[in-house]
Prior knowledge:
GO biological process, one term: proteolysis
Shape: globular
Domain Metalloprotease TldD/E C-terminal: 228-459
Strand content: 35-45%
Domain Metalloprotease TldD/E N-terminal: 22-80
Pfam family, one: PmbA_TldD_3rd
Structural class: alpha+beta
Largest sheet: 6 strands, antiparallel
Domain Metalloprotease TldD/E central: 111-220
Strand order of the largest sheet: 3-2-1-4-5-6
Radius of gyration: 23 Å
Distance between the termini: 30 Å
Amino acid sequence: MLDKSTIKEVLDVAMAKGGDFADIFIEEKKTTGIGCEAGKIERIQSGMDMGAGIRVLSGDTTAYAYTNNLTRKGLVEVARIVNHAAHGLKKEVSLNLTKVKPSVDFIYKERPDEVSTERKVAVVEAADRTARAVDSNQIKQVIVGYADVVQKVVIANSAGVFVEDERIRTRLLVQAVAAADGKIQTGYEAVGSLSGFELFDRCHPEEVAEVAARRSVQMLAAKPAPAGKMPVVMAGEAGGTMVHEACGHGLEADLVQKGLSVYAGKKDQEVASPEVTVIDDATISDRYGSYRFDDEGTPARKVELIRKGMLTDYLYDRLTAMRETNDSNGHGRRESYQHKPIPRMSNTYIAPGKTDPDKIIGNIREGLLVKKMGGGQVNTTTGDFVFEVTEGYLIKDGETGPMVRGATLTGNGPDVLRTVEAVGSDLGFTIGTCGKDGQGVPVSDAQPTISIKQLIIGGTAHPPERSAGRIIRL
């Protein structure tokens, strides 16, 4: 997108008044979105956005500006704007002309920008037909959303890092609304990955639609969830919303350093049950939150955050790592060139254990089995959280009983992690768009089947004052 000599000149200007560090993030992003409602294709959108963001770090001061003008003159002007935040002596920029090699590689078998619109529309229409066919009387509304992104980036900085990368993501979301006897219930299912159109070779749109539609219909017959404290089994298929919200955000280094995390100052201390190991790994093939490099040009890596209950690490970007004279562990992410990077999760999960999932359910005398989670929020300062349950069942004498609706889970992240009594041998992933500081980034999270000694079921909870949560965009 830009030659290296121009990039070096821009970085030279950015550092002209001193400063500790400067970088440039150049992005070209092609997007396609298709929406279907009321059985009709309502929108087909495609577009391209290009721009660059330039940052200067000087002590605890960060200056960031962006532009759509990718000419030499336009970029130099932005570099002059941000260099006013710097102080000290001018530093020479050494731009390494050798590309940084990624720690992992990903293969895109069928690029979505080479797939016809007709084939993409066919995927959406197949999902819509299947969802409606589940129950033509009770299914009242179906919304299907398809999206793909082809993002090319160039990242360079004053430390000599130069990276070129391409990220391709594809996803499909299905939401079905069922109604009967004055009751309305919604079912939702989504698939997506760092991959091309080959996503639908393993995740058939018809299967995604059927899951969403059946969930909405089944919820019509569900009984209201009981309120009170009881044991909870989180099925592997529920995905990792619990670990993402109750744990992951609190392990992002910016919140830790600001004193806004319940995990601040607890490295090498016990923060969870010995059964619990928590990992964030951006190198997993085909996962929605994966990448070769983060948005600062740091190669992706697997980071063990909690090992057998002991807090071992946080998620760092370059700025938070510099504050502790450490290296970034590859978690500086941004929504686009219009945003500065901050520490973010990628694919976060509780590592599988050795217990048979059926045995975990069988050991519960009375409790709640959660098979699908909805949205959630967490107060990272205290660890308090609240989640919605979109598919749950009562457990009675070790057997899965009737479906319930309207359940919420309320608790405290560290307390819950300390009361995990069993960890299953399975592992189930879900996808989402994680919101923080006004930015959304693609993530995956996962967990095996786990048994939690006790949670508060039902009731209402106010949104935390300081919160971060998953958001869904159709």
